[in-house]
Amino acid sequence: MATHQLSIVLAMFFLQLFLSSQSHSSVFTMVNKCRYTVWPGVLSGAGTTRISPTGFILRRGESTSVSVPTSWSGRLWGQTLCTEDSSGKFSCLTGDCGSSTLECSSSGASPPATLAEFTLNGAGEVDFYDVSLVDGYNLPMMVSPNGGTGGNRTLAFIGGAITILAAMRQLWHLF
């Protein structure tokens, strides 16, 4: 089994998977290349180990790495326009996970939310990932695997480069 490191970029929200055959875990590095703050959320799939943290803040230009077990599945996404009210309730305009706190509990993102979905060490011990718009679109996102062996290690873009550029232009004028 390989070690994986992955990075996610928000607007780019960028997620990079670093792959290495020397270890039995993965590292997801999330980088916020947006011109605004993004609050990533993490949801482990049914039957897989819950990873921590499940929610945190990434200011413009910041990055955070999260260790993930070798056989893991789940989703990562960016929450935007988040606030905490006078009673301490945390909420986000897009991608909110409904926990009322910075950390997400057992719920995924409320639409709209661009999702990065992963299955590590899946069928045939192969890693699978995609960027999904099934829950709508709130951020341009790119996934970039690094390291590892075999297979086709390509970048996953939402809707292709032209769509990303057009969406980035639309989002940037909002913030």
Describe this structure in words.
With 175 residues, this protein is mainly beta. The chain has a single domain, classed as Thaumatin (Sandwich). The chain is built from one helix and eleven strands. It has one helix spanning 160-172; strands spanning 4-9, 13-19, 25-32, 39-44, 63-69, 73-84, 90-94, 115-119, 128-132, 141-147, 156-157. The strands form two sheets. A six-stranded mixed β-sheet has the order 5-3-1-2-10-11. The longest helix has 13 residues, at 160-172. The protein is globular, with a radius of gyration of 15 Å. 39% of the residues are buried. This is Thaumatin-like protein 1.
**For the record, what CATH class applies?**
Mainly Beta
Radius of gyration: 15 Å
Looking at the structure, what is the overall shape? globular
SSE pattern, N- to C-terminal: EEEEEEEEEEEH
Overall helicity: under 10%
Q: Structural class per helix/strand content?
A: mainly beta
The CATH superfamily is known as Thaumatin
Count of extended strands: 11
Biggest pleated-sheet summary: 6 strands, mixed
Uncertain residue ranges: 8-12, 17-24, 153-175
What attributes does this structure have?
single chain; Thaumatin; 175 residues; 11 strands; Osmotin/thaumatin-like_sf; mainly beta; 7% helix
Write a compact overview of the structure shown.
This protein is mainly beta.
How is the secondary structure organized here?
Layout: E1 4-9, E2 13-19, E3 25-32, E4 39-44, E5 63-69, E6 73-84, E7 90-94, E8 115-119, E9 128-132, E10 141-147, E11 156-157, H1 160-172
Parallel strand pairs: 1-3, 2-10
Antiparallel strand pairs: 1-2, 3-5, 4-6, 6-7, 6-8, 8-9, 10-11
Pfam families: Thaumatin
InterPro entries: Osmotin/thaumatin-like_sf (IPR037176), Thaumatin (IPR001938)
Signal peptide: 1-25
